[in-house]
User: What shape does this take?
Amino acid sequence: MKKKQKQKRGGGEQLFEVFVRPRAGLGHRHVGSVCAADAEMALLHARDCFTRRMEGASIWVVPSSSVTVSAPGDKESFFEPAADKTYRHSGFYRVPGDVKHL
Amino acid sequence: MSSISEKISLRRARFDFALRMGDNGLILSHRLSQWLGRAHAIEEDIALANIALDLLGQARLWLSLAGRIEGRGRGEDALAFFRGESDFRHFALAEQPNGDFARTIMRQFLFDARQLALLEKLGESADKEFAALAAKGAKETSYHIRHSAAWMRRLGCGTAESNRRLKEAAEELLRFCGGMFCEERGEELLARRGVIPSADILRAQWQSTVEQVFAESDLPPPDAKAIDSRPSFCGHTEHLGYILAEMQSLPRLHPQAKW
Assistant: This one.
């Protein structure tokens, strides 16, 4: 694991990840990123770039540098061990006939 | 005053006011749209284009309303594209050139501060049609001023260079602000009837918003003398002809075109 590299554009701008909640009751989803000098401007940019067509009820912006990401090299140890563990899927279990509500 | 002549002058005043609202949106929108592809970042490009489109949308509603009040069959396009310079009623501030980014932000902020004060009051107008358009516009404008004031503070408190540019923009543009507060023909009548707020109320509210944001932006307070240096200046500057030439040439070449 490593910290995501801090990405900067000219004028001391910084990259922010944008999360939008489509409507109340749903979770925020990652929709893209914007460059801005600070968090407040990032929020305004995110509103202008990602909610032009009523997509959002709420926006989060997070400095990309605060996101800790898995490295491509972690793929084998992170994800492949799950491949043969079918018992982690609900379909693996037979539901007894008497169970009405599941 | 006899009721018939008052009715006629009231109608004329409503027409003039709606036209002025439409022209302010139309001309400022055109100026902002000239930034397309030129802003320092794509995010800001989109932000300015969004504001331009909001203003154009408001302009269309006000010009359509003006056409209905006039009752001579002129629609939004006829009013936007087939009038000459002397018939446009927007503020000289709105047509001032974009200049650098600081100049554009200053122009926008000075306009937004007055526009928001106006639309909030106009939402309670005795005129139901004005009130409905104002309510829609106020939501958009409260975002515009959030954007322009945020940039004012960042440019003002950013570097020595950005502060200098913002200061220059203030010096250049404040002298056009008096024109936003001189009552045009018929506006006094509308104010008396509770249709629009008086220029004095708007001026006071504008002044307090501008003083506050100037202070937060490390700018000296706006000089009242500079603002009033042309108190009777409600006319246009040499820039309008160029704007109209660009904006109107296509519909005038192809007056029957539909798009």
